Amino acid sequence: MKLAFSKKYNIIFITFLLSINSFCQQTIVETSTITNFNNAVSLFNNKAYAAAQNTFDDIIKDVEISNHLKSDAAYYDAMCAVRLNQPEADKKILSFINDNPNSSKKNRAIYNVANYYFANKKAAYALKWYGQVDIAKLSIKNREELNFKMGYCYLVTKNLKLAKNKFIQLINSPLYGNDSRYYFGYIAYKMEDYGLAESTLKEIEDNDTYRLEISYYLLDINFKAGKFERSIRIGKELIKSVKRNQKSEISKIIGESFFNLKQYAESIPYLKDYKGKKGKWNNTDFYQLGYAYYKQNDFENAISNFNKIIDQKNAVSQNAYYHLGECYMKLGKKSEALNAFKSASEMYFNQKIKEDAALNYAKLSYETGNPFKSVAEVLQDYLNTYPKSKAYDEIKDLVIASYLHQRDYEGALVFLNEKNARKNLPIIQEVSLYRGIQLLNDNKIKEAIPFFAKSLQSENNEVKTRATYWEAESYYLLQNYTTALRKFMTLNNKKNSIEDLFLLDYNIGYSNFKLKDYKNAITAFNIFIQNDTIDISFKNDAMVRLGDCHFALRDYNKAISSYKTVVDDIGADADYAEYQIAISYGFLDDNAQKLKALTNVVNNYQVSTLKDDALFQLANTYTSVKDNKKAHQAYDRLAEKYPSSVFLPKALVRQGLLYYSENKNFEALSKYKEITSRFPNSPDALEAVANARNIYIDEGNIEDYVEWIRSLKFINISNSDLDNTAFASAEKMYFESKKGEEIIAALSKYVQSFPGGIHWIKANYYLADVLYKVKEFDKSISYYEAVLEEEQNEFSEDALSKLSLIYLEKDQFNNALPLLDRLEQEAYATENVLFAQSNLMKGYYETEAYDLAIDYAKKILLRDKLEKSLENDAKIIIARAAFEDEDLLTAEDFYAEIEKTATGELKAEALYYNAFFKNKQDDYDVSNKIVQKLIANYSAYKYWAVRSYIIMGKNYYGLEDIYQATFVLENIIKNFKQFEEIVEEAKEELIIIKNNEAKKNNSVSPIEENKPEKKDKN
User: Fold this and answer.
1) Paired residues of 281 in beta bridges
2) What is the predicted pLDDT for the residue at 717?
3) What span, in angstroms and rounded, lies between the C-alpha atoms of 638 and 624?
4) What distances in angstroms separate CA 437 from CA 431, 433, 469, 508, 538, one per listed residue?
5) 315-330 and 334-345 helices cross at what angle (nearest 10)?
6) Largest Cα–Cα distance in the chain?
7) Which of 429, 680, 897, 967 could connect to 458 by a Cys-Cys bridge, CB 3.0–4.6 Å?
C-alpha cells in the first residue's frame, strides 16, 4: 500500500490584505503599525516564520492599536508557532480561539493547523485538530479534502474501521474517488473481507498509480480464497514487472499455490526464491520446501529443510519430524531417524502419526540402541501405550532380545522372573550364564558364582558345560584350587566341543601346579602344548610351568629342556627360564653351564627383575669354584647396581666370609659393620656380628669387639636369653594357634616387654600380619611401619606390599606412593614389582603427576608378559594422562590401541575419545558412526553414552543438521539430570545453536545466556 502524503492535497492558503476603512483620521503610529503588520504577513507567506513572529509579537504588545489588528496578529503568531514546532503552539491556538470566539479566522486556524500537521506526516496531531473543525463552515471541496485526510490519518494510525467510513463517502468523488477506492479496498483486504476487497480493487486495477499494488493484493486474495491456478497465473505476470524487493512475497504465493495443488516440482524454485520476513524464514517455510523435496524423493534436500524446524511443538513440527524420520530411513541413517520419530511420537496433534512414529521409534531402538532409555524400556512403553496395536506381538518378542543385545543380562533376568519364571526357566538359566561371565570380567568373582550355579541346572548341555567351566575358573581366581581342579576335570571329555574350553588343559595344569601335584600338572601341560592352534604366549607360559614342574620333581635335565624352548623362542619370561636353567645346572654340579646361563641373564636381558638374583648366584658360584676375583666382582656389581636388592645383606655376609677366607680381616670387618649399620635387627646382621666376633678373637682384640657391640642397639647381651625365650613362646603361638586374639596378645606382650629387642622386627611383622588377616587393617599400620623403619629385611617386602595396599584401599595415595616406590626397588618377587609399578602408575595419575604416571605405564608395557587387563590399565593411564597434559596425539594413539582389545566400560571410554578426536578433526560423519556404535553396544555405561551424545550434537551442528543437534542436546538436558556437568555443557551448546539459528529462523526464540560457574575439577 502506498502510505505517502500527496502534494496535490496540500492546500496553500493565501491571506488577503486587510482593507482598513478609516472613518477617522489615522495617526502616524497606527499607520506605521499596519505597515509592520503587512510586512510580517509578507514574511509569513515567504515562510520566514521566526522574523514574522517577532513582528506579530510586537504588535500584540502595542496597547495603542485596535483590538481587530491585535486579533489578526495573535492568529498569525499562533500559525508561526505551529510552523516552528514550538512547544507552546497548541496553547497559542487555544488562546486565540478563546480570546476571539467570534473570529472569522477561528475555523480557518483549526483547519490550517490540522493541514500543517498532515503535511508534516503527524497523523495523530492532525486528527486532533481535524476533529475540532466545524464542517458546516467548510465548502464542499474542503469537506471532501477533510474526509480524505482524516481517512488517511485513521489508516496511518491503524484505526481501520474509522478510516473505512471516511473513504466510503468519497468513492464517487471526481477528485478523491480512485484514491479512496484504493484505500477502501486495501482496508477491506487488511480486515480479511476478501470479497469486498477484490470487487473494490478490480474497479481500479488499470489505474497506473496503483496497478502493481492492486495486482499483488488481488494475487494474495485469490491465494487466500483457494484459487491457486488463478494465483499462479496472476503471480507469473506480476513478477515480471515488480521491483526486485517485491519478488520475494510473490514467489512465495506462487510457490505455495503450486504446493497446494500438489505440483511439488513446480513449487520448489518459487519457494526457494522467498527471502522471508526481514530476511528470515519460519518453520512453515522450511516445512513446505522440505516436503516438496520429499515428494520428489530428493531426501537429502528434504532433510536439509526439515532439520531446520526447531523450537516449536505444533502440527507442522509433528508432520515435519515424521517425514524427516522417513527421509533418514531412505538414506540408511537409522540413528537420526530414531530421534526424528521420537519427536513425532511425543506430540498429540495427529494421533495416527503419533502411533506410527512410536512404532518406528521402538523398532529402531531395537536395531540401533537407545541412549535415553534401555531398549527394553522403550519396547515395553510401546506395548503399554498401544496394547491393541497390530504390532503388539512383534514388539513383545523383541523385548528379551533387546536385553541380550544390549548385554543387560541383569535387566533380562528381572524381566524374565517377573513375567513367568517357570515358563522362562531355560532362558533364565542361559542368561544367568552370561550374567556370571559379565561379573567375572568385571572382577566381581564371588558375585558371579551363584549365576553359574543357576546355569548348572540347565538341560542344555552347552549351557551346563560352559557354566561348569566358568565356575571352575572363578574358584581358581579365588585360590580355591581343589574345587577348581575338580570342576575342570569333569569337562575333560568335552574340551573339543565348545570354544570356551580351549584353555582347559592349561587350567588343569595350573590347578595341579598350585596344589603341588607336579606329575599331573606335567601331563596336562604336555597335552596343552601339543595343540598347534594355541597362541604362542600361552604355549611359552605352559613351557615355563612345565619346566618348573620338572624342577620341583628334581628332574633337572627335563626342566632344562623345557626352559630352553622358551629361551630359544625369546618368549615371555625368557629371563626367568634362563635363570632356572642356571639353577638346574647347579643342582647337576655343572658349574660351567650354570655360570654361562647366569651371565646370560645379567647381560642379555635389558629389562629383567632377576639380574640381582643372577649376580648373587654368580658370586656364590665363583666362590665355590675358587674364582675369588670374579666372585668379588659379582658381589661389588650387585652392591653398586642394585643397592636395594633383597640379596644385598646376604651378599655382604658372604663377601665378608670370602675376605676372611683370604685372611683379609679388615675388608671382612668392613662388610660386617656395613651390614649391622644398614640392616640392623636382620638375621644377616646377627650373623655378621657372630662372624665379626671370630675375627676380633683371632686378632685378640676383645675390647674393641665389646665396645662395638655396645654401640649396636639391637644387641643386648645381658637380656638375650630372656628375649629369646619370650619370643620363642610368642612365635610358637603365631605358627600353631588358630585364635587371632591369643596370637595378638602374645606378640603384643613381647613387643611391649622388649622394645628394640633381638626379635623386634620379626615380632612387629607377625603382629601386623595377624591383624591384617583378621581385617584389623588400621591397627596393623603401626606395626608394619615399625618393620619398615629399619632398612631392608626379610619382612620388608611383604610389609611394603600390605601397608601400601591398605593405603590404596583408603585412596590415601600420598601415603601409598613412597611405600610403592620403595617396594619397586626392594622387591624380589616379580608379582610385587609389578604390583608396585602398576599402583605407582595409578597413584601418580590420581595425584595429577601425569608425567610420572606415563613413565610407569610405559615401564609396564615393556614387559614381555602381561595380563590383558594390566596392559589395558597401562594404556588407559597413558591415554588419560596425555589428554590431561593436552598431548592429544599421544592420547589418540593409545585410546585407539585400547579400543582394539578393551571390553565393558573401558571400551565405552575408548569409543568416546575416538569420537571426540574425530570431531576435533571435523570428521563429523565418522565421529557420529563411532557414537552410534557406543550407544548400540555399550549404552549400559551411561556416563560415556551421555558424554558421547554431546559430541554427537556438535557433529550434527557441524553437518548443518540443526534438528538433530538441538534434539540431542535437549534430550540430554531432559533425561540425564544426574550428570550435572554434562547437562550444563549441553545447555551451553544449545544456547549457541539456538541464538545462531534465531538470526535465520523467525520461529526460533533466542536464549538469554546465563553461563553457570565452572565447578572446581577436584
Assistant:
1) 1001
2) 55
3) 18
4) 10, 6, 11, 19, 21
5) 160
6) 170
7) 429
- Using the structure block, give the residue that is written with the C-alpha cell 486556524: 109
CB–CB of 467/431 below 8 Å?
no
CA angle 392–398–404, rounded 5-degree value: 160
Alpha-carbon dihedral of residues 780, 783, 789, 795, nearest 10 degrees? -90
Cell of 376: 527394553
Sequence-distant (≥ 6) Cβ neighbours of residue 660 within 8 angstroms = 668, 691, 694, 695
- Alpha-helical (H) ranges within 885-941 are 888-901, 904-920, 924-938
Rounded alpha-carbon distances, angstroms, from residue 720 to 711, 736, 754:
16, 24, 10
Grid cell for residue 44: 509569513
Residues 6+ apart with CB under 8 A from 11: 115, 142, 145
Distance CA 537, CA 532 (A): 12
Half-sphere exposure in the Cβ direction for 884 (13 Å, CA): 18
Cell of 609: 627383575
For residue 277, give the DSSP letter: B
Dihedral class, residue 554 (left if φ above 0, else alpha if ψ from -120 to 50, else beta): left
At 281, phi and psi to the nearest 5?
A: -85, 175
Q: Give the per-residue pLDDT at 1010.
A: 58
Ranges under pLDDT 70 in the chain: 1-30, 63-64, 419-421, 700, 716-726, 738, 1009-1018
Buried b / exposed e across 154-169, counting CB within 10 Å, b at 16+? bbbeeeeeebbbbbbb
Q: Which residues pair with 280 in a beta bridge?
A: 277
Beta bridge partners of 277: 280
Q: Which residues pair with 368 in a beta bridge?
A: none
Lookup: cell for 424: 522362562
Q: Which long-range contacts (CB under 8 A, 24 or more apart) does 660-667 make?
A: 660/691, 660/694, 660/695, 662/628, 665/695, 665/698, 665/699
Distance CA 306, CA 294 (A): 10
Rounded to whole angstroms, the Cα distance separating 505 from 310 reads: 62
Q: Any idea which residue has 558424554 for its cell?
A: 947
Residue 972 contacts residue 982 (beta carbons within 8 Å): yes
- Rounded Cα gap, residues 572 and 863, in angstroms: 8
Cβ burial 610-632 (10 Å sphere, 16+ → b, else e): bbbbbbbbbbbbbbeeeebeebb
Name the grid cell of 588: 647337576
DSSP 291-323: HHHHHTT-HHHHHHHHTT--S--SHHHHHHHHH
Sequence letter at residue 470: W
Q: Please compute Rg for the chain using Cα positions.
A: 51
Q: Return d(Cα 934, Cα 928) in angstroms, integer.
A: 10
Nearest-CA neighbor of 781 among 753, 808, 807?
A: 807
Distinct helix (H) and strand (E) counts, the chain:
53, 0
Distance CA 763, CA 757 (A): 9
Q: What is the pLDDT of residue 950?
A: 94
Closest residue by Cα to residue 473 from 445, 498, 451: 445
Distance separating alpha carbons of residues 265 and 242, to the nearest angstrom: 24
Amino acid at 581: I
Q: What is the DSSP string of 734-769?
A: HHH---HHHHHHHHHHHHHHSTT-TTHHHHHHHHHH
986 in Cβ contact with 334 (< 8 Å): no
Q: Which of 751, 746, 725 is nearest to 734 (CA)?
A: 746
Residue 280: phi, psi to the nearest 5?
-125, 135
**Cα-based torsion angle of the residue sequence 216, 222, 225, 227 in order, rounded to the nearest 10 degrees:** -150
- Output DSSP code: residue 718: T
Q: Which amino acid is at 53?
A: Q
Q: How many CB atoms lie within 10 A of CB 277?
A: 12
Q: Please tell me the predicted confidence (pLDDT) of residue 807.
A: 92
